[in-house]
Automatic annotation (TrEMBL):
SUPFAM superfamilies: HlyD-like secretion proteins. One of its GO terms (molecular function) is efflux transmembrane transporter activity. One of its GO terms (cellular component) is efflux pump complex. It comes from Aurantibacter aestuarii. This is Efflux transporter periplasmic adaptor subunit.
Length: 379
C-alpha cells in the first residue's frame, strides 16, 4: 500500500513539473512592451539681427553740487540768523545764516581804528610843512574815514621819502592791524552764498560757540550730482555732455541727467572709473538713491537674448530639422539677465528659453501658440 501511494505522488509531481515548465517557456515568448520616446516641446525664436544699443547700468546716491559745511572760526554766543536756524529752513542768497555775539571784539576793533585815525592826524602838521604836495591827499583820507564803516585803503605813496616818513610813524603797521581785526570781525556773521536750505543744525540760540566747532550744513537743492563707478572697458566710450536716464527704483519715476565729469584715474582695486552725473529736478532730495543707464555704444548686427542660454562661454543651441544643434557665437556685452551676441545668421531658429537636460541631437518640437477660433456671431 505504501508503494502505491508513493507511486501516485511521484506521478503527480512529474505532471506538475511539466505544467510549470510549459508556463515558463510560454512566458519567454511574450512580446516586450514598446517604450514610447518622449519629445520635449521648446520655446523658439527666429533671429533678426539689428543694431543693439548697449546701455551700462550703474547706481548711486545724490549729493548737492553746491554745499557748504558751516564751521565757526571765532568764539561767542550764538544769536541766530535771519531765519530760524533749524533743518529744512530756507535762506536766500545774502541772508545771515549765523550771527555770533561780537560786542566785545567789536569794541577792540573800534579802538584800533581810533588809534589809526589819531596817528594819521598827529602827522598832518609835519606833512603840511615837509610834504605840502601830499598833504591834501592825506587830508582827504581823514575826511572820508568813518569809524562805523570798513577802513579805506591808505593813500598811494608817491616817493621813498614820503614812504619812510609814513612808515616811521607806524601808520602802515597800524593800518594792517586794523584790517586784520576787521577781517576776523566779519567771521562773526556767516551769510548764505546762494539760495538754499539748511540740512543740518548743530547749535541753537544762546549756545556758546567755540573756535573750530561745526555748526551745520547748507546746500543748494536745485542741482545734484550722482557719482557712479563703471568698468574701465567703457572709459573711452563715455563723453562729457552725454545725456543719461536716471530711474527711481521705488517710484518708477525717470529723470534726465548729464555727464559733467569723468575721472581720469582708474581705481586700482576695483578697476573702475568714476563718472559724475548732474541732474536737476525739484522733486529730488540729497541722499536719494537712483539707477543710471549710460548709453555706451551701438552694436550692429547683433541680438539680445537671455544670459542663461550661453553654453561654454561662446556657444548656443539652435534648432535644425527638429533636432538641437550647437553653434559658436560672439558675446559682446552682459547685464544681470541679458546678453548681446553676434555671429548668428538671420532666420536661424534659436531657443528662447533654457531646456533642462538639452544636448546636441536631442529631438524636440517647437511650441506653437494656439489661436482661438473666432465664433460666428448669433443672429
Amino acid at each position: 500500500m505504501r508503494k502505491i501511494i508513493l507511486s501516485v505522488l511521484g506521478i503527480l509531481f512529474i505532471i506538475g513539473a511539466f505544467y510549470v515548465a510549459k508556463s515558463l517557456i510560454s512566458s519567454k515568448n511574450r512580446p516586450k512592451p514598446v517604450v514610447q520616446k518622449v519629445v520635449k516641446t521648446v520655446f523658439v525664436d527666429t533671429v533678426k539681427n539689428k543694431t543693439i544699443e548697449i546701455v551700462i547700468p550703474a547706481n548711486g546716491s545724490l549729493v548737492a553740487q553746491n554745499r557748504i559745511e558751516l564751521f565757526s572760526e571765532v568764539q561767542g554766543v550764538f544769536n541766530g540768523g535771519s531765519n530760524a536756524f533749524k533743518p529744512g529752513q530756507k535762506f536766500s542768497k545774502g541772508q545771515a545764516l549765523i550771527r555770533i555775539n561780537s560786542g566785545e571784539y567789536y569794541a577792540s576793533v573800534q579802538s584800533a581804528k581810533s588809534n589809526l585815525y589819531n596817528s594819521i592826524a598827529a602827522i598832518m602838521p609835519d606833512l603840511r610843512l615837509d610834504f605840502p604836495n601830499v598833504f591834501q591827499k592825506w587830508q582827504n583820507y581823514l575826511n572820508q574815514f568813518d569809524l562805523n564803516k570798513t577802513t579805506p585803503a591808505l593813500p598811494k605813496v608817491d616817493s621813498d621819502k614820503e614812504n619812510y616818513f609814513i612808515t616811521g610813524r607806524s601808520i602802515v603797521s597800524n593800518y594792517y592791524n586794523v584790517k586784520n581785526l576787521e577781517e576776523r570781525l566779519s567771521k562773526y556773521n556767516i551769510y548764505a552764498p546762494f539760495n538754499g536750505v539748511l540740512t543740518e543744525a548743530l547749535v541753537t540760540k544762546g549756545t556758546l560757540v567755540r573756535n573750530g566747532q561745526k555748526l551745520g550744513e547748507f546746500i543748494d537743492p536745485s542741482v545734484y550730482e550722482m557719482e557712479v563707478a563703471i568698468s574701465k572697458t567703457y572709459a573711452d566710450l563715455l563723453k562729457v555732455g552725454e545725456t543719461v536716464q536716471l530711474n527711481n527704483i521705488d517710484t518708477n519715476k525717470t529723470y534726465k541727467g548729464e555727464v559733467v565729469r569723468i575721472n581720469g584715474n582708474i581705481d586700482a582695486t576695483t578697476q573702475t572709473i568714476t563718472v559724475f552725473i548732474e541732474v536737476k529736478d525739484e522733486g529730488l532730495k540729497e541722499g536719494q538713491y537712483l539707477e543710471a543707464k549710460l548709453n555706451a555704444k551701438d552694436e550692429p548686427d547683433a541680438i539680445e537674448v537671455d544670459r542663461n542660454l550661453l553654453l561654454d562661454n561662446n556657444k548656443m543651441f539652435v534648432l535644425k530639422d527638429s533636432l538641437l544643434d550647437v553653434i559658436e557665437v560672439k558675446p559682446v556685452h552682459f547685464t544681470d539677465t541679458k546678453m548681446v551676441v553676434k555671429g548668428i545668421p538671420n532666420n536661424t531658429i534659436i531657443l528662447k528659453r533654457q531646456v533642462p537636460g538639452a544636448y546636441a541631437g536631442m529631438l524636440v518640437t517647437p511650441y506653437e501658440e494656439k489661436k482661438n477660433a473666432t465664433k460666428p456671431a448669433k443672429n
